[in-house]
Amino acid sequence: MNKTHLLGLSQDELVSLLQELGQPAFRGRQVFAALHNRRLSSFAEMTDLPNALRSKLDQQATASTLTLESRYISTDGTRRYLMKTHDGLPVETVFIPEDRRDTICFSSQSGCPLQCSFCLTAQLGLLRNLTAGEIVEQIVIALNDAYGAGSQTPHGTNLVGMGAGEPFLAFEPLMKALRIMSDPSGLHIVPSRVTISTAGIVPRILELATIPDRPHLAVSLAAPTDELRDQLMPVNKKWPLEKLLAACKQFENSLKPGERFTFEYVMLADVNDSESHARQLANLLNRYQLRAKVNLIPHNPAAPLPYLPSSAQTVEKFRRILEAKGVPAFVRRPRGSDIYAACGQLAARGAEKLAAAPS
Ligand code: SAH
């Protein structure tokens, strides 16, 4: 792609680019607002720009590099978008409508290099990191599909970096995309509306702790012991629980009053969901005196993953044991599992594979 993807530029960078084309600063601001506030994806639609400028931009730059291949709509209203990058790689985004605000779950990588045994994305391997522009464009595409280009969204948008990939292995494009999206004259989605989930890339957790204007953090645990976590999440061999929780403690020390972070715990039947696992988990978090809450996510099954979800009773029993030991715990209800949009199900499945998949 030799054209510049304008969605990956901050407002200042866009102003400079247009100045290089001989344009005054206000033109850069105008184009930024057209891209991010009005969410226009072609220069032709920017009819308030002079014709000559529109064709100059067309030659050198682009406002869209992702192509929407398919859209799947769940019975619960969740939408999954399967897109392709300019070099033909899959990107998936999930739009989750909620009563008061919407949540968009975006991907940070095409595929993923981490080999978590319960996650379908792992089977793709890493294809590549997404660029800042490709991250921002996912949000623009989802909002435009839900509400139409050029129209105001009826309520606010929360973002979760819980789609395909490990966000902390695409740290620079991720942080740049978040800065661009927080601009008040653009999408205006501020970091406090964003949660980034990591499998436990310790140096990046420590780095995030030093950033004042940062998104919320969620850390995926999946097991209370190194022995089990090594099997389920091989990233644990590099950064075992002791290192991970010490980093979480440091992160906790940097929280502002009232701010919290989250652990996620996928519940796999007869693998990590016993009463003794619950006690071990509570003891582990209490040993580090972590005040984080735990979100329990019943496993979203997908052939060929070798797991079943824990039963509702088992999840509830697990939750009560955590609570009894002073660890706040919540059960996350899956959204969009019928269209392969739920956690761990993003693996670029098309309609034919969906039809063949067990329900
Ligand atoms: N790589 C990041 C973000 C993507 S996964 C991370 O690991 O946190 C987002 C969440 O979905 C993680 O908490 C992960 O543990 C969970 N998850 C993965 N596969 C799942 C599955 N099949 N069912 C339920 N949750 C799953």
What's the gist of this structure?
The chain has 359 residues and is an alpha/beta fold. The chain is built from twelve helices and 14 strands.
Present the secondary structure layout.
Elements: E1 4-5, H1 11-20, H2 25-36, H3 51-60, E2 61-62, E3 67-73, E4 79-84, E5 90-96, E6 102-105, E7 109-111, E8 126-129, H4 132-147, E9 157-161, H5 171-181, E10 194-198, H6 202-209, E11 216-220, H7 226-232, H8 235-238, H9 241-253, E12 262-267, H10 275-287, E13 293-298, H11 312-324, E14 329-331, H12 351-356
Parallel strand pairs: 1-2, 6-9, 9-10, 10-11, 11-12, 12-13, 13-14
Antiparallel strand pairs: 3-4, 4-5, 5-6, 7-8
Helix pairs in contact: 1-2, 4-5, 6-9, 10-11
S-adenosyl-L-homocysteine binds next to strand 10 and strand 12.
What number is the mean pLDDT?
93
Percent helix among the residues?
A: 25-40%
Overall, the morphology is elongated
The H/E string reads EHHHEEEEEEEHEHEHEHHHEHEHEH
Please describe the biggest sheet, giving its number of strands, its sense, and whether it closes into a barrel.
10 strands, mixed
Bound ligand species: S-adenosyl-L-homocysteine
* Assembly state (oligomeric): single chain
Q: How do the strands line up in the largest sheet?
A: 3-4-5-6-9-10-11-12-13-14
Approximately how much beta-strand content do the residues carry? 15-25%
Distance between the termini: 39 Å
Q: What structural category arises from helix and sheet content?
A: alpha/beta
How many E-type strands?
Answer: 14
Model regions low in confidence, pLDDT < 50 over at least 5 residues: 355-359
| Tally of individual helices | 12
Radius of gyration: 21 Å
